[in-house]
Amino acid sequence: MKKIIIASAIALTCVTATQASAMDQLGKYEWKNRVLVLFGGSGDQKLAQQVVILRGKKSDLADRDMVVFTVIGDSVRPIYGDASGVDARKLREAADVKGNKFQAVLIGKDGGVKLRSSDVVTDENMFGLIDRMPMRKAGQG
After folding, report:
1. CB contact at 8 A, 39 and 102
2. What pLDDT does residue 134 have?
3. Neighbours of 71 (CB within 10 A)
């Protein structure tokens, strides 16, 4: 558990300002929702596993004001919440995701990238990270 927390902290410090501002494609969610974007290819086992984990946690997603969707090729599909108007190609480019390898990218309410992982993220780790965020601690979702 300590290794995962340390890895998450390292991942957070490695996110550059360029990556954070690159998520302007998701501006309609800013200050309202945290967005988890799951990139992958069709038949990607990590993507399928991550979706299964999240589909069983709808009340936790709602409690944390989250929107979750997948980006597979040129297609955006909602897992939880509204993904209308999101362009898969532009989002892939803005998030600097190349190819069809799995990647989970969590964007905070402030529009900054809070987590980037090429491995499946457990619900405990994701929700723990969110619950430590200043806005969450301040009672703002």
Report:
1. yes
2. 74
3. 25
Architecture of domain 2-137: 3-Layer(aba) Sandwich (3.40)
| Rounded Cα distance, 132 and 102, in Å | 25
pTM of the complete model: 0.81
Closest CA to 65 of 53, 80, 79: 80
Query: What digits encode the pLDDT tens for the residues 103-119?
Result: 999 999 998 999 999 99
Question: Is it the case that residue 20 has pLDDT exceeding 60?
Answer: no
Helices (H), the chain: 2-14, 17-21, 45-55, 58-63, 88-94, 123-131, 134-137
The confidence score (pLDDT) of residue 21 equals 40
Whether the CB-CB separation of 103 and 118 falls below 8 Å is answered with yes
